[in-house]
Write a structure and sequence with these properties.
Number of domains: 2
Distance between the termini: 36 Å
Shape: globular
Helix content: 55-70%
Order of helices and strands: EHEHEHEHEHHHHHHHHH
Number of helices: 13
Strand content: 5-15%
CATH class of the largest domain: Alpha Beta
Oligomer: single chain
CATH superfamily of the largest domain: Response regulator
Number of strands: 5
CATH topology of the largest domain: Rossmann fold
Largest sheet: 5 strands, parallel
CATH architecture of the largest domain: 3-Layer(aba) Sandwich
């Protein structure tokens, strides 16, 4: 099976963010997918959406700084292995970053070769990055059509996607994909999609600034009441009670 290593680069300076991304794409054989964020709010969205195993993040960013992003991701239980990038040589930042689980702390400007070396060393030294969860694996269900569909759902759950659309992406008929879901994972296409959306919603509830309807829209529901019914069916409690339990 092929492991998929996802990297998030979060930095509000376009030239730095895009330069690191381009260099790693050209020179890394370990990293399969790279996502970028230009501010802290976007970084949180990308973490909840794609669940990268590794993150390079600047300290000072608009909306939410890097330490707040790490704190919220850690509280949600999905904080990637993190290297802090910052032009601020203050030990207090390093202390807080380490408290939230940062693996390293680099001062800008730093060379792309140094950044890539640290990222790849972190990947090689941590077996949990390769085997982090079945979500990062190809052929995780033993049927390539289902695996492709699930990978697509995990990355597009927030969109207005349909069985027909996903079946076309996979290359099978909607009826056949429905049969494969039932046989392979024991639930329907829409049931699986709703489970993905609800799990992502649980992550977003750690952000106390978001209203329930905003969370519903972020994970792909167009109706708050329907979202609440689906959430309660899957989790056994309402979104409001879930949020209070955090």
């Amino acid at each position: 099976m092929e492991s998929i290593v996802k990297l998030l680069i979060a930095d509000d300076e376009d030239n730095i963010r895009n330069g690191i991304k381009t260099y790693i794409e050209l020179h890394s054989k370990l990293i399969n997918k790279i996502y970028t964020a230009s501010n802290g709010r976007e970084a949180i969205d990308k973490i909840f959406k794609y669940k990268p195993q590794v993150m390079l993040i600047d300290v000072q960013m608009p909306y939410k700084n890097g330490l707040v992003v790490m704190k919220e991701a850690k509280e949600a239980g999905i904080c990637p292995k993190t290297i802090i990038l910052s032009g601020y040589d203050e030990f207090s930042y390093a202390q807080k970053a380490l408290r939230y689980g940062a693996e390293d702390y680099l001062l800008k400007p730093c060379r792309s070769t140094e950044i890539l070396a640290k990222v790849e060393n972190m990947i090689k030294s941590d077996n949990n990055i390769d085997d982090n969860s079945s979500e990062y694996r190809i052929d995780k269900h033993g049927n390539r059509f289902v695996d492709i569909a699930i990978e697509y759902l995990n990355e597009h759950y927030m969109d207005n996607i349909s069985l027909k659309e996903v079946a076309e992406k996979v290359g099978v008929t909607p009826g056949y994909l429905t049969t494969l879901f039932a046989k392979t994972i024991g639930c329907s296409f829409i049931e699986y999609l709703n489970k993905v959306r609800v799990e992502r919603a649980c992550n977003y509830f750690y952000d106390n600034t978001l209203k329930t309807y905003e969370v519903a829209y972020k994970v792909g529901f167009s109706d708050e009441k329907y979202f609440s019914r689906v959430f309660k069916k899957i989790k056994g409690i309402s979104p409001s009670k879930f949020r209070k339990s955090l």
